[in-house]
Design a protein that fits this description.
Layout lengths: L1 E2 L11 H18 L8 E2 L12 H7 L2 E2 L4
Length: 69
């Protein structure tokens, strides 16, 4: 599970911890449903999928992705 934040959501140095908390919340939900994540990582505001200059873009960047490896 990989968590992300938008660049305006929190101060930059804490965006990593904020995105990890977002991914941890999803991991906890999955674990309660007997689906266990092997790895949880936060990328903060790195790797945006949309423009951070709009509310829609920032909303898109506040996300958790599940990468199957």
């Amino acid at each position: 599970l990989f968590g992300f934040a938008d660049k305006n959501e929190v101060i930059p140095f804490s965006s990593i911890s904020f995105s990890v908390a977002r991914a941890d919340a999803v991991a906890d939900y999955l674990a309660k449903n007997k689906i266990h994540a092997i790895r949880v990582r936060g990328y903060g505001h790195q790797l945006p999928v949309a423009n951070n200059d709009t509310e829609i873009g920032r909303h898109s960047n506040r996300r958790v992705e599940i990468w199957m490896m």
